[in-house]
Amino acid sequence: MGRFYVDRRFFQGKAAKWVSFESTAALENTKKDIYGKCVPCITNLYEQLKEGRSQIRLGQAFTCWKIVAVMDDEQQCMEVLEAFEKRFLGSRQLKGRFGSADAAKTTRVIVFNVEGEKERKRLFQEIGACAEAVNAGSTVSYHRACAELYHDLLGDWRYWKETEMVKRPELVNVLLEKIRKMLYWET
Question: Among 14, 50, 60, 68, which residue's Cβ finds the most Cβ atoms within 10 Å?
Answer without folding.
Answer: 68
